Each structure stands twice: as C-alpha cells, then as structure tokens.
C-alpha cells in the first residue's frame, strides 16, 4: 500500500531517510544455503558510494552494511535477512534553507502535498540515499542469480549529453571495462569525452543528463508472467522507481515506431538442440516472457536537479523566491546510477527466477 | 504471483484466453454508491473492438459486457464487480498451423518454455484479446476518476512510422478530436497521412509501428508513493504490461539525456493561492508523486508481429520452416491501442487516488 | 484490501451476491497439466447444495459450474481458471422485509455501517451463498493435493447440540462414512440422534449449533511459514472466514489449558527411516509448520440466525420491532458446512504445498 | 510468500532470530503526524520482557528499542518506521545440545524438514523471541488506535490449569488491574491461586497451560471485510500466529455448539440515537464485521514445551534419546503472552480501522 516493498518471492522492504539514523532493508525469500556475508555487499555499496572520484559528490559515507539476521554460520537460513546501514556523515545544517523553499525538480513540494509534513533534511525519504539498501539487497540477488541460475548483469553509461558510447556488442561488456573509468562507460574514448563534458558542466555550475544501459545474460527462457507482471513491465517499474529516471526502453525501444514488422520481427532459428532468434530486437522478451536471448534495456536519467546557481521557486506559503542548492551533488547522476540500475534489475530477475522455479 | 491481478485498493483480476469461452474481470475496491451499468462500459469496448474501420482487423466480436455482481439498483455496493465478456467469433481453424510453428514476435515460444503446454488458439492468454476486460475495468476507473476526483484521461496516436502528429497543447486534446478519424490522431493532417501510410503498409503485406501519447488532467497533487510505487513507476509498468509496448517516457522523456539541469528544471510559481510549475518537463510527477500539473507520457508500440507474408521460424521441435500468418490482423496496432492505454492509465490513477484518499 | 482474495500462489478471488446474476471465482496459480473439467467440481457442489435432504433448506439451485478459462483440451494451462455459477432460484420477494429490519445474528446492520448501502436480497454478499464458488475452487485444490501431493481431506459433523459423535480414530474416517447419513456424521448412532434433534429443533421453529471436525492426512512435513503465516494461523483464518464459525482449535485445542507440559508434549520416535511423534496432541503442526502427522482441527458453528419465530430487533431508523424470517433455512448449518470447511482446508493446504515446493 | 509481513495498510515486516544480532520490524502505513518516540514502545516491551518476576524466565534482556526512521521532530512522517532491538543476553552455550536433538513440542524438527538447515540457537526464528518486535509494533498500533479512533485493548489471564478467573464484566477490566499481579489476572483471588499453581508446577519441573482473554472497546461498527478478511478471521489468524496458541474463540465461542438460535441471537435495541445489541454473544462481530459492541475473544495457550526433566525424543539422524531442556523458561507462558496478544490485536484493529477509513 505504501510502496516500500518490492517483489513477490524475493521480496525487499526498505525504510530510512537521508538524514535519519539509518537505512534498513529486510530481504525476504532468499533460499536457504546461500553463502553470504557483509563482504558480498560491500563492492556494490562502494560503487554506489559518494566521493569515489572527483566527478561525483564528495559526501563521505562509509556505507558499511551490517547483516542482522537470516545468516547462520556463513549461510542463509531461508529466514529474512535484515540489513542495517547507518547514516554517518549527516550535516543537517546544509539543508536548513529547504525547509521553507521548494527545490525545483525535487519532491519537496509533492511530499508536502502528500503527507502535509516532511523530514526536509536532505530530501528525507525522497533522497536517493534510500537506494543504498536497494543496492545491498541487489547484491544478494546478484549472488543468488549468479550461483543458482547462471545469470550475470552488467550496466554502463551509454550517453552523457551528446556524448554517446559505441558498444557494438552489449553482451561482451565486462564489469572490469565498466569500472575502468570513473564515468562507468566501457568505450574509453567516449568515457574521456564524457568526463570532459561533466567537468565543463560542473564548472558552469550546471548539470547534465544521460542514458544508462543494462544487459543481463544467462537468463533462461520462461521468466515473466503473461499479463500484468510481464518481465518487461516489472523491469520498467523497477527502473522508473529509481530517482531521476524519465524513460525506459528495451530491445529496439522507441525505434520500433518507424519500423516495419518485416524488419522488426526476430526470426527463430535452431541453435544446436536449442532455439534462439537470429537477431535480438525483442531485447530478450517476447509476450513479456524471457526468450533466453540477452535482456537489454536503456534508461533516460535527467540532469541533477540540485544546482549551485540560483533557480526560481516559491516558499511553502507560495511567495516567489530563488534558491541556490549549495550541498554536495553530482553534476551528472549517471556513474552512480549504474549500481542502482543493476541492483533493481537483479531484484526483478531474482524474483521472477524464483517465481518460475515455483512452477 | 501469477500476475493476473493489478492494483492495491482499486484492484483488477482477470482471466480468459483468446479462443476460450469468455474473458472475465473481477474489479475489487470500487467505492459504494457509484452509478454504474453495462452502458458505461460499452463505449470504450466499442473503441477497442476489432472491425471498426477498414484500417483495423475485421474480426467481428460483439464484445458485450455483462455485470454479474457488485451493482444493485444501478449503484455499486462496494463489493467486487465481476464482468463477463463472451468470445463470440472464435474461428479456431484459422490457428491450427501455429500449434506447431512459433510465430516470430509472438509469445508462442516463450509460453511453451514457461508452461510446457499452451492453448495455442489465437495466442491463448498471450493474445491482446485479454485486454478486452482491462478496457471494461478501465471504464469503471475512468468513471470513478471523473465523478469523484475530477480527473480526465485522453490518449491519441502521436506517430505512425515517420508520420508525426503536431499537438502543441496536449491538455487541449478532446475525445471528440481523437475519435474524429479512425487512426485516433487529433491532428487531422497527420491523421490523413497516417491512414495513407497504413494502407500502403497493408498493401505491402507488412505492418508499421508508432507512438501513443496519453494526457491526464485534473490529477491532484500527492498521488504516488515515495519509493517503489512511484506514480511514474506504476504507469510505466501499466504501459509495458500491454502487448507490443517497447518503451515508455514521461514529460521530457529521453530528451533529458542531452539537457542541462538549468534548462530541465521546472520553476515553481505561485498561481493564485495555489502553486504550480512554469513549465511541465516533469510530466506532472516529481519524486514519483503527482504535482498537480498534467500527467503526460508516451509509449512506443511495435509493428504487428503477425504478417501475411512468409517469415523464417522453427517448429516446436526446432526444424526450420516459414510461416504466413493469414488471420485477421491490424497492420498498425496504434488506433486500437489507445483505449487500452487509457484504461491502464485509469486503473493506475484510480488506485493511487484511493490509496491517497486512504491517508 | 477488500478481502475478496485468498492465498498466495494458489489464489482465489471471488465475487457475487446471493440474489445477483451469478457467483464467480478466479482460481489463479493452478499448475499446468492437471486434468480438469466441470465434472470434478460437481460432487462437492452437490454436497453443499441446498435441498439435498429434509434436514436442510429446500432452496433448489442447480449450482452448475461453468469453467470459462484456463483449461484446454481437458488440462489446466497454468493460466487463471474462471468459474461461473449462475444463481437460478432467486425469489427476491421473500426478502423484502429485511430491507428495513435488521435480522439478529446477521450482517445486515454491520453492512449498513460499513458501506452505507447494501444489496439486502438474501443477505447479498454476506450470504453463505458466496461459499458456492469457494467450494468449486476447493474442489480444484483437492484434486491438485490428491494427485500431486497425496493429501486427502475429510470433514464431518462431530457434535450437534449435546449429541456428540464417537470417532476414536480421525484418520480412519472415509468420505463414504460421512456421506452415509444426511447429517454427515460418520458415527451412525450419533448421526441418528443428531437427526432426531434437528427435527425437534425445526419443529420448535428454532435452530441448533454444533462442531465440525476436519482431518487431513498425507500432508508432508514442512508446510507453513515460521512467523505470521503459520499453517495453524492460515487454517484458523480460513475457518473463521466461513459464516457462523465462532471458534477454532487444533490438536489438543482448548484442552491444553489444563494440561501439564510433561503430558502435553508429543515425544518424537523413529518410524523406519522416518521420524514421527508417538501421540498427536499437536494436531500435525509444530511451530506452525506441518510435522507429517495428520492435521486435525475443530470448528464451532453457531445455530442458524434466521428463525421462523419472532425475534426482537430494530428498523434501519432504530425503531423497535420484531422479525420472523420466513425464508428457507437449515435448522442446523453443520451438514452443509462440511464441504465448505473441506474446501477452505484444501485452499490453505494447496497454497502452502505450492509455497513450499517453491523452495 | 514467506509470511514475515502482516497487515495491508498498517503493515509490519519482521526479521530476526533468538540468538542473532538483533530483531527488527519495519512498520509501514502509520499515518503522518502521530507523536511517537521510543518511550511509547518501552512499557509493553517491559511487560513482555523476561525476568520481570520470579514466575517468569530470568533471561535478562534490556529489550531497548531504537527507532531508525519514519519519525521526525517527535512525529511520524508517514514513511516506514524501522525498529531495532538488539539481542543482548545471548548465551549460545546453553543451546548446543539442541543442535542434534529435536525438542518435543518445538519447531526444531519441522524447521529442518522445511529449510534443511536451521539456526538452532535458542530456536532461531522459531523462538518466541521474534515477538519482541511485534510487541513494539503493536505499541504503535495501540497508540494510533487510542488517539485517532478511541479504541482501547486490554488482555488478561483468564485461566491457568484449573484455576479460572471470575471476570463478570470484561469491559471493566483495566490495565492497572491486570498489572496488579505478576500473573496478569485481574481477579486477585484467582491470581493468588494461579501463582501458587505455577510455583507448584515449577517445583515439579513441569509446566502448565491456560487461557488468555482480550477485550477491545471503542471499536466503531464497520471494521472487517465481508468474505475472506472478516475481522474474526484476521483476529484468529493473528492469535494463532503466536507461539503456543492452539485455540481461538470469540463471543460465545465453542458454547454455541449446544445453543439454540433463539437463545444465541443478540437482539438489536435502540440506544439513544444509536443501535446496539441487548447481549453480546456475538463478541462484537456480525458477518465478520464489527458491530460497535465490545470485541471479546479467548486463546488457548499450551504449557511450555521446554521442560527441565527428561523427555523422549530422537536425534537428527533418528536415534532415540532423551533431552532435558536446562535453559531459562517460564513454567507458564500466559503472563508474558498477554502483551503479545494485545499487540497482535492492535495490529489487526489498526489495519482494519485504516482500511475502513480508506472507504
């Protein structure tokens, strides 16, 4: 009802505000016997963490996860896994102005309209801070997918402003290639141009949007439900549930608008004793159910709304004013968006893999 | 679990196959006291119905809904409303070939991988036939939204192939303007070109994709939940749950990729004793919660997969073959997609309106 | 939210009023490949049907189910199964008085307080008529349990008024023994006394309560979830969701109040290469999870509230009056309660069996 | 699916084992603006806490709750409230024997059958330790019910072994009267006898069962849903979800078995401009919906399964053995059961109050 739970069998419930004591996730439905410790969560938490490089915000949180339940002698027990991540570096003084002024592009105004009352510090529950526990939960899902189902998920930055990466074969992108540059773009030339652009934008006290791409390989055919819970529908929801995402497309995406059926359809062909399609304009999903081909999709991410330049807005009582958001913010959200997108992809795929296994 | 239910408070559960006896929806959570009869469902069912014009399929179904429960003396009672729509014009003989061959672009292959067994006739449960009861349920949601919340939803065809409609003000599009042409495009010039294109495509035994747009006005601020059940997330899921949709974007959509924050943010301005934004690049949703501005989004719809020309594929046992889909199929799905998109939009908004009212 | 859906994987959603056009169930989550037709539903529908014998109400409904979806060529497809049961013998004239007067023991008053408006005819949705589709859904669950899991469920009348059945071994009760008498008590002597008592009560224009017992055998160990969804909790909910039930107890039940731990605990003992308990005071559930021992429980069922004698009550506007319920009502609900109790038991066990199989 | 979540609008998700680092609850759906701090949780945590008196176990846990989210400046924000309770006094050494032997009456055996693997220390997730966060969540529900709905919940020990309390008017029982004795029985004479009995049982290295009663007053008419989510069904589930409960009855309970309808029905009578019933054999619920009369029900609680005397059992590999449970255990569970029963009652009533308010 309040939308703090995601998934059916692999099921995550979260709580926490940007500047409260902690963020918490309860991850339910993890099968028993999976080896698991905090060490499995840290790499993705580190990738998401602020302050990793000069192109991202310098807020320095340790983002150390503590597993409070559901693991015994190094293995999951099948009972819910609670993850606690304390909020260390909470400078509430930075945020006193936004108590009274609505930041453009943020949820301050809509939270007030919804709840009549909000924890304004750093955006409270509307802050991207809440994704920290999604990333931790996603790390568990990734491990389950890899060990039990052979599924591997990689995301990367495909575009920043007009700088577009060239990635001829999405299935060949490796985590190492993505992590090779702070902008998380596996095309080194494009990455270099993106970094220059981001620095220019930062110098101009502005921000810039982009596009993220995700590819999941080793997804067996048959995942997704026929009607409302199509796999594409749940992936779309997962991505749009992330802050700053304004668009989702999979496979040929918006390109289908100008395509003819004869060129858009992917022919089925034999592949040894298996069946696959010759091309993958369907992005690995047909009728909303995985086909066994790689799942590929893209997300449009808006430029950071918080800007260190004056923007027109109003106060809570409706008086015109301006606001300069002086806090520590990324000029481009894309690099830190990648682990979030991967995590949400993992939550969807783990849930659907278990739902299908239940058949 | 099986994904045949949609929504939390306003909640729809459906059943039915393309060529089974009937399609059924149970619509739960409709507040008591709403005046309702079958006459309220018929207009949208007629808009969705095959055979309305020469540019859509000629399958002639009456698509007459019977309300079996939840209405007493012309008013809803607050108990669940069951809707029954019999499948009249079921010509199973048309579909015998697809028992053994996988149609490219369809769910035949993935259903077999999922269930090991399927009702192949007309695509069974994967057929767009199942949307008939979504449209009926959506008509109830629309009525509730209009009468209790003052919300109005209109969808139209924004693009077919390269033919793009010019709609300077989405909020001014009326149902009458949409229904003025069989292609459901409110720009008469573009509509004429689209119709020509669709006829050309049909003559070429091919099909063509396009883009649908939806605008909802009169949506009060505060709808949507902060984290997973963001309004944008649920709209994205709703749209991607429809057959043939490969992309979703709201507000500035994929255009944000090349935008700077300073140009993308919508400034808040006073509006009498209310607050609104000067522009609406945020498509009526901030932090995933409605802002009171019009909600606008677009969906990419692929060209019809069924084609009356030979396509390469394989049999169930993996032997290469070709298939010609000789059934009655629209060369362009967009016109009949509009009532489906409106219906799913209505289901999402009705559910979130009631969820927020519950606060 | 509105409580018209039951179960998680094996999931039933119902709709329908006593005197509306029909009652409907959508049964979701039935695995593909189960052989199924309307013939599988009829026996239990007949057991529940009014008018079977002189000790039950004479309302004559055919109660013929039509399966509208989810079955193809005699087997389930894995898609939702819709069941339609028309209400044939609807004599609305019998119920005009209760539009204005609240029947003692019925839900007329509470429905008005809840919805502000109700379909008063025959109790509308509060009537036990709605259980007809629960029984149909339960028949599918029973078949699944028997064929896939080897589970068998039998219920019987254990007590009517002061007449108590002697059933030394609950696991030996057969359906034939239960069906041998119209009162559904497998102890023939007690059955005879119960019938005499029911006839006496009817002659006195009164009604009488009783106790039903259910035993499920062949339930493998491990069903039920550790915390909120304990198997005992879901069985209790299932039973209390049936009309007229005021109590539930399993195993030693309320008898534990006066027991010492040393006599109440069931010792574990080896049984070949298996483990079982020496006694079964725990009714087949420990920690809320099935132990592999037979599951046994009992329900207290109140005397029929509708009485053909004057009862004090008030009108909708609060004026004191009396009411004589002249309709066709059973003087004792127990015989027709048995198939309802079995059906709800089957829904719970099928759901938990599939939930556990999902592990 | 895994049953670690309870409720629909007011919704609690829990995690934690007896001897893990902590127990955690995420309480979702609490309306914004309720004043709340840890001080509101402590009284009931103290009532549930071990070691309060010599008749309960001496395990000394501080059971101090920390609120990690959802509260800002002393008021709830409408976002989820995470509660953390560390497990302080964890003596794992006490529990090494039960790794290999199945304790009679406990869930050791069924957990192994379910998960194939378990955290054996102190029962792990099957321990009543998990109720500590239910009690904390229940304290929030109680506060909401009292402040927003005027509802008050009191539970007490009605029976221990053969010692039965005399409570002529359940609605007059006060928290003070309940807390006046360590056995939580408001009848002082019976309380004295119960204490003597419990001491005798303890001296005999045995345990004893009993009956708890709960009364909720100030519950407005209209709570509960007509079919599966009847209020009585959800209360039954809530109570049976608690450890050691084998029976539930409300109102006249099992006494209806021998009652005639003419004596069992509660006549409606005017009460000023309201309507109530003359008697309350229906325990405040008709058709599963609250009538506005006090809600009363009783639970049968078994004697503690852990006994400091030898009991027959088997090892994990099925070898016969005996076990003496030497840990710290209450000889009678009833006194500490009361706050648990009240908490679960509060969760059900808060959820249904909000569900009805959503109408």
Give a structural overview.
Four copies of one chain form a homotetramer. In chain A, α1 packs across α3 and α6 runs antiparallel to α8. The longest helix of chain A has 24 residues. Chain A is globular. Chain A has 359 residues and is of the alpha+beta class. Chain A has a single domain, classed as Chorismate synthase, AroC fold (4-Layer Sandwich), CATH 3.60.150. In chain A, 26% of the residues lie in helices and 22% in strands. In chain A, a hairpin with a 2-residue loop joins β14 and β15. The model of chain A has no long low-confidence stretch (mean pLDDT 94). In chain A, strands 1-2-3-7-4 form a five-stranded antiparallel sheet, with helices on one face. Chains A and B meet through β1, α2, α6, β11 and α7 of A and β1, α2, α6, β11 and α7 of B. β11 of chain C pairs antiparallel with β11 of chain D.
Domain tally of chain A: 1
CATH architecture of chain A: 4-Layer Sandwich
Kindly report the name of the CATH homologous superfamily of chain A.
Chorismate synthase AroC
Give the number of helices of chain A: 8
Strand order of the largest sheet of chain A: 1-2-3-7-4
Gap from first CA to last CA of chain A: 27 Å
Oligomeric state of shown chains: homotetramer
> What fraction, in percent, of the residue positions of chain A are helical?
25-40%
CATH topology tier name of chain A: Chorismate synthase, AroC fold
Q: What is the β-strand count of chain A? A: 18
User: Greatest contact pair?
Assistant: A-B, 117 and 117 residues
Radius of gyration of chain A: 21 Å
Order of helices and strands of chain A: EEEHEEEEHHEEHHEHEHEEEEEEEH
Describe the main β-sheet of chain A briefly.
5 strands, antiparallel
Beta content of chain A: 15-25%
Which spans of chain A have pLDDT < 50 for at least 5 consecutive residues? none
Mean pLDDT across every amino acid position of chain A: 94
